[in-house]
Each structure stands twice: as structure tokens, then as C-alpha cells.
Amino acid sequence: MSEKPTQVEEISSSNSVFVAEKPIVIPLELVPNTSTQTPTFVYVPHPNRNLMSNIIFIEQTDYFRNLAKYICRLAPRRNIEYSASTEEDWVLVTVCHITLKFTLDYEAGCTTLKCSHLKHTIGFPNMHYVFCASMLFDYILKTYAFRLMLLKVSTDSLEIGFPTQNLSIEIFCFDCSKDNIEEVLSRWMPHIDKVEQMNIGNVRSVEQHRKCLKIFRTYFEGKTESWAGETMPLSLINELRRMIPSTSLQRTSVPIAHVFRWIKGWIIGLQGYKHITQVYYNNPAFRMNKGVFRVFLKIMDDVENSELILKNFDGKRAKLYVTSYGGLNFQVITKNFEGHVNCDPSRLPFSTENLADDVSKELHYLGLDYAEGQNFRDYATPRNQGNN
Prior knowledge:
Elements: E1 8-10, E2 41-43, E3 49-52, E4 55-58, H1 62-74, E5 79-85, E6 90-95, E7 98-105, E8 110-114, E9 121-124, H2 129-143, E10 147-153, E11 167-173, H3 181-188, E12 192-199, H4 206-220, E13 226-229, H5 234-243, E14 246-250, H6 256-267, E15 278-282, E16 286-288, E17 300-304, E18 307-311, E19 317-323, E20 327-333, H7 362-373, E21 380-382
Parallel strand pairs: 1-2, 2-9, 5-10, 10-11, 11-12, 12-13, 13-14, 14-15
Antiparallel strand pairs: 3-4, 5-6, 6-7, 7-8, 8-9, 15-20, 16-21, 17-18, 18-19, 19-20
Helix pairs in contact: 1-2, 6-7
Organism: Caenorhabditis elegans
Protein name: FBA_2 domain-containing protein
């Protein structure tokens, strides 16, 4: 073990006690680093730990609690990413733009914490780096009342007993293309009660396709009503669309004409489409043409600010909005609107042929949609082919 740094400060939890009714007292080592001098290496005493029913109870926790409060005050949103490398012995806890790195530092002979928002490198003798990261992560969750806007995970390196309460998450991100994703989710999902949207990242192979469906049926069926993804095969997109009412496609290669096929199916109430509540589509490589609204001119209420209101055969209304930067948002409206929207089957401005949700015809449909998408006047223009 190498020699310890010469500049050492001993930090006691009693120096800064958090009291809910009073302003938070931030210890010296939590102050942003404005000094040009070499940072002082700070040691935090090892807290007492008792193992009871696989739950770790911390008796001396003021440092981690105050650090969590400090970080959460700096972060504009409740977005957290938890990642790790077992080969390099580190865990990253990222809250918005603030990254805290716990490392097994062989030179210092202990776990260390580094963060650009801390004045010092912090040392934790006799404490494992995964335990330190897990405890800080849990205090951040407590600060947010275990409700997050976004949580992204890529590791199962989380100490047993954490988190101490189950989570409610708006967007839960993971990547189905990772080999260890099933192990990762088996560690996290027992601690998650609610997920508004699952973001599955990328799916590039048949094996990953099957794994993604298994993950959904194991962990998310009945727990979420929305999904998002990026690179993935059309067959998986349509399978998830049939099972989940809300879809978000980011930077996708799927032609916009295929998404309009879904909207047309919703209008005439076809099985496989009529349950859809929202479709968000974004392909920055294209400029969306407002002329696409010509497809719906006879069944819309009005067009204002690139938005129109549609009505389907079941009497439901939906907003359809397009943007010039390749975005489309279709959303079923739950509240009533004044006025009347015509929806006469005889007046449909599009053909109902080749709209049935037929799995055996998916590739045929895709070919039709790519061909239809070549008529860029009605759908979208590649950015290298001029303006709308």
C-alpha cells in the first residue's frame, strides 16, 4: 500500500447535522472547487454497519445525506444514470450533468470519490466502492422521494439492501443489445413499482429481438403503457405496438409512411391499431412536409399551427402534429372539444386496402411504405434535398 497523502482532514458526521426545518449546512469539502491549489485529500470515517435481514442500516450517515442534498440542489431534473465497470473497479452515479465517480483507488489504498463539483477528492477507508455508491444513490432517491423522471441502468453492481424503498419512474432506460441486460434487470426490477415508459435502446439481431420480448413479458407487461426505442427491426416495432398503446420512435429508419398506416388503421378502428393512444416519431434526417395533411383533409376539423384534430369511427378524437425537423406526434384526446368532425367512411381520402394488421404481410407493407415515402411531396424531404 502506498503512502497516504500528506494533507489529510478528518471529517466527522457531527460537524454538519441535517435538520429538516433548517437550511442545509454544506461542509467545506462539498463547496465547489474555485481554488487553483492542489485539492486536499479528505477521509470520511467508516460508518457502523449492522446486517439485519439483508438490509444494511447506516448509523453514521450525515456525510452521504448532505452530499445527496447538495447534488440534488444543483441538478435541474430528477434524472439519474447508474453505471459501473467491474474490470476497472468504479461506479458512476450521474444526476443530470453531475457525475460522481467511486473508485477502488489502489494508490490511495481505499475507495475514493471524485466529482467536479467537490473541492476535494474524498477517501473512504475500509468501505467498498460499490457500497459507497449504493448508499449515496439511495440518499439521492430519498431526496427525490423515490420518484424519478428518468433512470438509466447498465449494471447490477448495487449493494444488497439498496434501494431501501421501491421506485416510481417516468422513463426507465436500458439497452437490449447488451449481453448482461437480463442480469441487470433481474437486479433492478424487484425495486420498481411503476414505469410510465420503458426505453429499450437498440435491438440489432434476432436473438436480441427474442430477448426484448421476453423482458417485456417478464417485467413490464401490465406495468407500463408506453415504450421507446431507436434502432430495431420493423417486426419488433409492430409486436410492441400491438401490446403497448403508446410508441416513441427516435432516429428510426422506419419510413414515416408506415406510421401513417397506423394512424389510418386507428381512424377506421382496425384490430391492432384501435388501441393506440400516442405515436411519437422523430427522424432528424428529414424535413416533415405539412402537405402530408392532404391525406386527412376530408376528415379533419381544422389545421392551425401545423396541428389538426382527427376523429375515428368510434368517436374518439386525436391531435396530429408535425414539425419541420422530422417529428410527428399523434395523441388521442381524452377531453371533449367543441365542434363537429366528420368521419364518413365513404369520404375517406385514403384507400383501406393493405391496412389490416397482418403479420404475414409486414414485409409487403414495408415495401409499399418505402415506395410511398419516395413521393417526398406528401411525407418528408431529406435534408440534403432542399427546404419544404
